[in-house]
Amino acid sequence: MVTSPNPDHAPALSVVLPVLNEARDIGRLLGEIMEQTTPAGGFEVLVVDGGSTDDTRDIVADFCNRLPNCRLLDNPRKRSGAGRNVGIRAARGKYILFLDGHCALPRSDYFVRTVELFDSTKAACLCRPQPLNRLTEGEWAKAISAARHSLLGHNPASDIYGGWPAFTDPSSAGAAYLRTCIESLGGYDERFDACEDVEFNCRVAAADLPAYRHPDLTVQYRPRSTPGELFSQMIRYGRGRARLMAKHPEVIPWPLIPLAVFPLIVLVVLAISGVEAAGWVAAIPMACWILMAGGESMRLAGFTAGAARIALAFLLIHLGLALGFWRGLLEFRRFRSAVSGHAPTGE
């Protein structure tokens, strides 16, 4: 259970939650935080709100009245990267753990394990699986979760959905850090409104700082619950990947390249050889995609309506990523510069 911290003693762990309109989940998550076993050295909770228009702030304020080590902070710039930097500047802990408002902690010793793993591995960054298979409410959420967990729905090289204990590349799943690690790298680039965590983790990897992955740090996330929400999310992700490649040219999102290049090839063939040739060029890859997506959907859900929903989710994932990637390429020059802002420092 949470105990009152000594105001003169910095906690071992600062938990930073950048939120915006998370009334659906934030109360449950803060309740799970209240039930956490206190790690050696204690912990604090910093909820950084980007201007919520629902009941998020009221829910958090109520918890702050009951949790002496919980604070509600403002994020005028709204985006998650800016919210993370606000939390970093206010944090007092040796270790900083980031959580989102729409996730769940599956174990009551999560904070204890976080501190233990930092101490035992001497890692600068801890990485975690972030599956989407617990907070699924409704048929579309189940279909989207199934699609996102499939190899057709995410980068197979990512640690995001699992992995055994090991030192690893932090790019896909880094989520907790030594405070000194964050400060030395200058905090988060606030120009990113997606992939801000991946961009920061790329800098962790480039600095050759040790990162460790452990399944005990698994956090369950809520998947998008409608096709429109999924499509918007994938456009943001695709745009973020293009921005990431602009800033870090060595980080090429190879799984995205075929999706992005395919329509360009069709347009070139159309301009050179006409409609009939372009139609053949388009038809063959599309037929292959239909066979793969349809076969995978039926493998996951059989001959059911759920399979049709999963197939549509695959389409929205791939189309959204491709459109977002092309949109992000239009901003290529702006994201070639270094990190915006200054390194955050503790108060």
Describe this structure in words.
- There is one protein chain.
- The model is unreliable at 1-7 and 339-347 (pLDDT under 50).
- Helix 9 packs across helix 11.
- The protein has 347 residues and is of the alpha/beta class.
- It is globular and about 75 Å long.
- The strands form 2 sheets. An 8-stranded mixed β-sheet has the order 3-2-1-4-8-6-9-7, sandwiched between helices.
- The two termini are 27 Å apart.
- The chain is built from 11 helices and 10 strands.
Shape: globular
Number of helices: 11
Low-confidence stretches: 1-7, 339-347
Instruction: Tell me the helix content.
Output: 40-55%
Q: Label the structural class.
A: alpha/beta
| SSE series | EHEHEHEEHEHEEHHEEHHHH
Mean pLDDT: 92
